[in-house]
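Good morning C.,

I know you're traveling, so I'll keep this short. The sequence:
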Amino acid sequence: MKSLTLLSAGLVALLLAGCNSETVKTAEAEQAKVYTAQFAHSKNTSNSSAIVTKIPVQSSRDTTLLDRVVWNAEKQKGKMYRYGGESPKTGFDCSGLTQFAFEQGAGVSLPRTAADQYAASVKIPKHEASKGDLVFFKTSGKRISHVGIYLGDEKFVHAPRTGKAITTDKLQGYWANKLVGFGRVPGACKPAYS
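The tokens, ready to paste straight into the viewer:
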């Protein structure tokens, strides 16, 4: 009962504060150093209320905002690509998916297009790329035209194109040939729990 009271009080505090992320802790969880992640998000607009997202897994203190970004992107797998799409209800295009995942997972606002996301990111070499970094491609013409979220081990999650569902692909074959590079998102590379 005490844990439930602490949990309820923590959620109310999160909602009132409109904070981007917090850990709801119980005495037992603090002792075990294992936490159930619960996140509150607020868009800071007068007509928008906070939304609480419960992650159905236990997280350690080592969980980062980028882990949450990846979780939000992978949760969309199987949903169909939609040009201009930027929500789970309408579907996503590639940059809509990355924009959504970073806003929901890290509270970071990305620009809307793949080219603008590339311009806003800090470029990093492939050997430094890690889970949660953006991966950019030129799939048509000379501009950056596609973006995904790197998962590590040469894999990335993305919304490929019309007629295809959000999926995980490997950086080989077609994607290796179209690869431009990797970008790190400022403000998203920190622990989710303080």
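Safe travels,
E.
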